[in-house]
Amino acid sequence: MFATLSDRLADTFKNLRGKGRLSEADIDATAREIRIALLEADVALPVVKEFTAAIKERARGEEVSQALNPAQQIVKIVNEELVEILGGETRRLRYAKTGPTVIMLAGLQGAGKTTLAAKLALWLKEQGKSPLLVACDLQRPNAVNQLQVNGERVGVPVFAPEPGNGVGNPVAVAQASIEEAKRTLHDVVIVDTAGRLGVDAEMMQQAKDIRAAVNPDEVLFVVDAMIGQDAVNTALAFQEGVGFDGVVLTKLDGDARGGAALSIRSITGKPVMFASAGEKMTDFDLFHPDRMAGRILD
Ligand code: GDP
């Protein structure tokens, strides 16, 4: 589809072998190629600018290695910087010291929250936890049912308002779920909340009210990697409206290049913690910065 950064730089550096240091012109040419590669990967412009400036700074001080060709050397630097910004090591979930750990999911409708809730539940089960799924998306017709179907697929119970009572109060459901978890000895509560197609004041207020009511140990912002550049504005709106501790990128099985990961991390300062990549319940893993760096550059 796109030329990789290595291909681009190989052209730029055709005549460079054997030079001791990159000239200012080489560095400018390099920066231009990196900029294009990052923009093609859907990284937000302010992040691209900042990143490119940092790479230029670092490249100025570098000796041209005899072992690597200059293009490989720059790709290595870019890769290291990307991994660094993406968070270095993966951040782990924080569990509550006492009582059930509460994980609240927030994000736009269609981001993949309901699917992710079940995937996360399965993953937690495999870590030896006993999760309870909680249906607080009472807005979207069928969301409760969808969570129940997914819950059944992963063998995790779902706490939901009684059928026929679907217009219930999501804050009350969230609160009641904590009591239910204590009573039934579930140690992690995963609260699925309502999303909208776009950022919406009422949705944000509801998420905020649920957050205030259950005081989650982790609020995870769930975002579709395919929305590319829009991911940053959505993340900022959720950061301001509800606040979150970590990010889950979904639909990484699509052809999104993953620039959203870099943009969100740089602009909100919050780590991407999990990656969701498919419709199967097992298509889910911890986020690996090194893999994402590779994806952004390829
Ligand atoms: P919600 O509105 O945020 O709860 O989103 P859903 O969980 O209902 O997901 C919206 C659509 O995206 C559904 O058709 C899901 O099957 C699909 N989906 C969710 N996660 C993934 C994923 O990682 N990869 C792919 N390809 N599809 C996904």
From TrEMBL:
Domain SRP54-type proteins GTP-binding: 271-284
Primary residence: cytoplasm
Key words, A-Z: Cytoplasm, GTP-binding, Hydrolase, Nucleotide-binding, Ribonucleoprotein, RNA-binding, Signal recognition particle
Catalytically driven reaction(s): GTP + H2O = GDP + phosphate + H(+)
First-tier enzyme category under EC: hydrolase
E.C. designation(s): 3.6.5.4
Domain of life per record: Bacteria
Binding-site residues for GTP, renumbered to this chain: 107-114, 192-196, 250-253
Subcellular location: Cytoplasm
Family membership noted in the UniProt record: Belongs to the GTP-binding SRP family. SRP54 subfamily.
Subunit structure: Part of the signal recognition particle protein translocation system, which is composed of SRP and FtsY.
UniProt domain comment: Composed of three domains: the N-terminal N domain, which is responsible for interactions with the ribosome, the central G domain, which binds GTP, and the C-terminal M domain, which binds the RNA and the signal sequence of the RNC.
Function statement: Involved in targeting and insertion of nascent membrane proteins into the cytoplasmic membrane. Binds to the hydrophobic signal sequence of the ribosome-nascent chain (RNC) as it emerges from the ribosomes. The SRP-RNC complex is then targeted to the cytoplasmic membrane where it interacts with the SRP receptor FtsY.
Name the UniProt record assigns to this protein: Signal recognition particle protein
Organism this protein belongs to: Nocardioides phosphati
GN (gene name): ffh
